[in-house]
């Protein structure tokens, strides 16, 4: 496969420049497949990365959760337009009446409005998702009306996981292994650290200011986050096999049917588009992009000190999967994806330019679950101060373990590049990656960063 040699060169150059400990990548294209491994899986032990080294899938699991939901839709057990509470009466939000408006489709299209992006209740065992939903009803409200906006939703996927447990009578993790891992041929995948430790498994790392990296002190997120990506673990070959299910007709490499052709098409078709470059259009589960004149279905999966990616290019019979055990791998993932898509057509480089905008309407305080963003006008720019406000000690412990330490962010300045759209001050605007941008919606009622919404609070 011609791409593999070039891919290895890109990985080696990036590791040399950054000191990223290890990286795994694989490409399936038109019946051929190859996997490459670079570096070490764990700097504490010096264990090398191997082609079959396991790693946390992170939020790529959301595509698997959505696959499980669509399987139940095909069987007539679920209807996407039915309120979630019809199947899951226990589902409530702290804002009265908000949960009753949410339909099943809102959970898997990131449009539910559930305000729980940083909600990390700690629970284990078979009732973990039940505990999550019970606490959700007491502690978390809604950011917006269902279907009004897109905001990347961990909470929506976890509620979907609990919904699946109730309608199937099977614990989520068992259902995932039975109805996704097994028929897809994901033979090295599991849903617990106890099983992962029995085989080669990579851990995440955090870079230090000295240039060195340190291993994570927390491998997985709590069991409550399983459907959103906290616990499933597997290999590059496993992800490539899963990606091939979504290339077109819903069958696995073994020939086993995982989804219908109609469900695959439904998951990969745009359902919502915020219309700003900082927020990707969404299908069901998938983020849906157009690069190099071709459709690219993507999902990135963060884990403590690591990041994975899965991309499916259905029109090109191509699947790309990768994992880096250092969060800086996100930059390499983006570079590789643009390079792959560029083989099929020119990938346009975004060009932004400063525009004169009245900044005063944007100033204020914006909030979401445990997050506060104070925005003010300073020297003709917007200055943002992001503050993490943990709900309790347990959630602070989990979140700081996930990000690798105490969460403190210095104030950042932004310049307007259009009405409601801002870029970091001082950064080159040509080719600026979209995740650096900030947008405002509903005039200035909402702020969006990284695909996640915060809501303006009354003055």
Automatic annotation (TrEMBL):
<dbReference type="GO" id="GO:0016787">
    <property type="term" value="F:hydrolase activity"/>
</dbReference>
<feature type="domain" description="Beta-lactamase-related">
    <location>
        <begin position="9"/>
        <end position="331"/>
    </location>
</feature>
<dbReference type="InterPro" id="IPR050789">
    <property type="entry name" value="Diverse_Enzym_Activities"/>
</dbReference>
<dbReference type="InterPro" id="IPR001466">
    <property type="entry name" value="Beta-lactam-related"/>
</dbReference>
<dbReference type="Pfam" id="PF00144">
    <property type="entry name" value="Beta-lactamase"/>
</dbReference>
<keyword id="KW-0378">Hydrolase</keyword>
<protein>
    <submittedName>
        <fullName>Serine hydrolase</fullName>
    </submittedName>
</protein>
<dbReference type="InterPro" id="IPR012338">
    <property type="entry name" value="Beta-lactam/transpept-like"/>
</dbReference>
């Amino acid at each position: 496969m011609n791409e593999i040699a070039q891919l290895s060169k890109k990985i080696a150059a990036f590791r040399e420049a950054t000191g990223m400990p290890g990286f795994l990548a694989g490409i399936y294209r038109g019946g051929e497949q190859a996997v490459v491994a670079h570096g070490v899986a764990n700097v504490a032990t010096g264990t090398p990365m191997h082609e079959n080294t396991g790693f946390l899938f992170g939020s790529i699991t959301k595509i698997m959760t959505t696959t499980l939901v669509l399987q139940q839709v095909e069987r007539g057990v679920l209807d996407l337009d039915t309120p979630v509470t019809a199947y899951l009466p226990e589902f409530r939000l702290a804002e009265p009446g908000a949960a009753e408006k949410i339909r099943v489709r809102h959970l898997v299209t990131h449009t539910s409005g559930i305000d729980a992006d940083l909600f990390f209740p700690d629970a284990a065992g078979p009732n973990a998702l039940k505990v999550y939903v019970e606490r959700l009803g007491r502690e978390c409200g809604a950011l917006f009306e269902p279907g009004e906006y897109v905001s990347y939703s961990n909470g929506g996927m976890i509620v979907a996981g609990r919904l699946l447990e109730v309608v199937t009578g099977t614990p989520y993790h068992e259902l995932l292994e039975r109805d996704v891992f097994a028929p897809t041929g994901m033979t090295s995948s599991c849903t617990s650290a106890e099983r992962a430790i029995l085989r080669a498994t990579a851990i995440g790392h955090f870079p230090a200011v000295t240039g060195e990296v340190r291993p994570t002190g927390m491998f997985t997120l709590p069991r409550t986050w399983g459907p959103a990506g906290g616990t499933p673990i597997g290999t590059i070959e496993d992800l490539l096999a899963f990606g091939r299910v979504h290339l077109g007709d819903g069958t696995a490499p073994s020939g086993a049917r995982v989804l219908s052709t109609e469900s695959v098409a439904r998951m990969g078709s745009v359902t919502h588009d915020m219309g700003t470059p900082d927020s990707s259009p969404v299908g069901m589960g998938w983020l849906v992009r157009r690069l190099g004149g071709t459709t690219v279905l993507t999902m990135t999966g963060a884990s403590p000190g690591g990041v994975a990616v899965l991309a499916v290019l259905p029109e090109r019979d191509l699947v790309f999967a990768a994992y880096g055990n250092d969060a800086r791998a996100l930059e390499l993932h983006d570079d590789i994806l643009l390079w792959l898509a560029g083989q099929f057509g020119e990938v346009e480089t975004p060009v932004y330019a400063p525009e004169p905008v009245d900044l005063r309407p944007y100033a204020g305080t914006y909030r979401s679950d445990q997050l506060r963003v104070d925005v003010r006008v300073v020297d003709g720019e917007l200055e943002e101060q992001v503050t993490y406000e943990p709900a309790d000690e347990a959630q602070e412990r989990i979140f700081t373990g996930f990000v690798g330490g105490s969460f403190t962010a210095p104030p950042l300045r932004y310049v307007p590049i259009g009405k409601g759209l801002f870029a970091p001050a001082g950064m080159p605007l040509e080719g600026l990656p979209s995740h650096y941008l900030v947008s405002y919606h509903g005039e200035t009622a909402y702020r969006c960063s990284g695909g996640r919404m915060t809501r303006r609070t009354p003055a």
